[in-house]
Amino acid sequence: DESGRTFYANAASGETSWELPAADRGGCASVPASSTTLIACRFLAEVAEMPDMVQAVGEACAQQLGKQAVEVQLSVAKGRAADVSAVVFRLVRDSIQLPLVSPLVGEAITAATAAVAGMAEPSLLGDGQVMSASHVIRVLEELARLVSVFQPYVFSFLY
Q1: How far apart are the C-alpha atoms of 86 and 80, rounded to whole Å?
Q2: CA–CA gap between residue 44 and residue 67 (Å, rounded)
Q3: Rounded to an integer, what distance in angstroms lies between the CA atom of residue 96 and that of residue 151?
Q4: Which of 68, 102, 111, 135 could crosslink 91 through cysteines, CB 3.0-4.6 Å?
Q5: Cα(149)–Cα(75) distance, rounded to whole angstroms?
Q6: What is the CA radius of gyration of the chain?
Q7: Closest by alpha carbon to 61, among 104, 22, 25?
Q8: What is the pTM of this model?
Q9: Cβ contact 143:90 at 8 Å
Q10: Distance from first CA to last CA of the chain, Å, rounded?
């Protein structure tokens, strides 16, 4: 809305709310969404369960996306920077390979990419821990190679 709040709707139950639903995410709902990475992964976990996403990418891909989003949240809760960078890399790597067949898939890819940006935020690991720049740069370097490989496929619908 105008004040920047998000309205949440559960397509399966019909429930709507201005508050983020406390869905069962394997204990991830108790982790505060204090960074872009966690916000993006919560969004991805929700999107992965949407019927439109399942229809667009298939049940296996949608489940994998949701599982990886939860893995990122769990690794953040544990506070190990190396683990966080590894699971964020896998999340983005697999998301950029999704078939770009709907706006929802594009939003999921964008959210996964935003998870990388959030790795540089000091609020990600909590307890005053800051992820070192080397972890973030390593993820970006690995992803740069993949993006150049997949770029022709991303824009293939323009031909």
Answers
A1: 10
A2: 9
A3: 10
A4: 68
A5: 28
A6: 16
A7: 104
A8: 0.72
A9: no
A10: 37
